[in-house]
User: Fold this.
Amino acid sequence: MGGVVIPRVDKFKYLGSIIEERGDIHADINQPIRVAWQKWKNALGVLCDKKIPLRLKEKVYHMVVRPALLYRAECWPVKKTQTQRLMVVEMKMIWWMCSYTRLDRFRNVVIREKVGVALLKKS
Assistant:
């Protein structure tokens, strides 16, 4: 282009999305996960306070954290492994919000129903 050599790259950012040479979206999924964790940390005083009712925590989670996690998700050609990655991040947040540990031996489905968070599905 006009004597300028354009270097070949493996990935680049276009309109806010990271486009990879092979068509993967791993790098594009990392950004919303980082943002969701940042929102989580900002709301930590509410989400992890044992004195605050779970219903209020649920509303804060639905209004602040989950939209950040799923931002632009409807545009992603998501694979099963990437959906699983998003679900793992979300469940870590929900377990922490409910003050549960893996030693409590609750199933994820039970905790999702208790908090009112729908399961992420590949569409």
In short: Residues 12 and 96 are 35 Å apart (CA to CA). The radius of gyration is 18 Å. Residues 23-115 form one domain.
